[in-house]
Amino acid sequence: MISRENQLGDGLMDWDRVEAWLYTILGLFFILGFVLESFPIVLTVMVLALLLLL
């Protein structure tokens, strides 16, 4: 029981790091999207990111 909880805790920590990187990358793409006015690219990246999260 204890070992399973520890494994779940480590997994949550890893996912927090992954999500932090994903949000950072999405933020950069949002900035690039507004600067370049390339909204289709931003929407495509958002859809791909959501699919990866699923």
Structural write-up:
The protein has helices at 2-36, 39-53. The model has no long low-confidence stretch (mean pLDDT 76). The protein has 54 residues and is mostly helical. The two termini are 27 Å apart. 93% of the residues lie in helices and 0% in strands. α1 packs antiparallel against α2. It has one domain (2-53). The protein is built from 2 helices and no strands. The radius of gyration is 16 Å and the shape is elongated.
Provide a brief overview of the structure:
By secondary structure, this protein is mainly α.
Q: Largest sheet, described in full?
A: none
* Unreliable residue runs: none
* Number of DSSP E strands: 0
Q: What integer is the average pLDDT? A: 76
Described by the principal axes of the CA atoms, the overall outline is elongated
What count of structural domains? 1
> How many separate helices?
2
Order of helices and strands: HH
Percent of residues in beta strands? under 5%
Give the N-to-C terminal Cα separation: 27 Å
| Range of helix content | over 70%
Alpha-carbon Rg, integer? 16 Å
Structural class: mainly alpha
What labels describe this entry?
single chain; 54 residues; mainly alpha; 93% helix; 0% strand; membrane; transmembrane; transmembrane helix
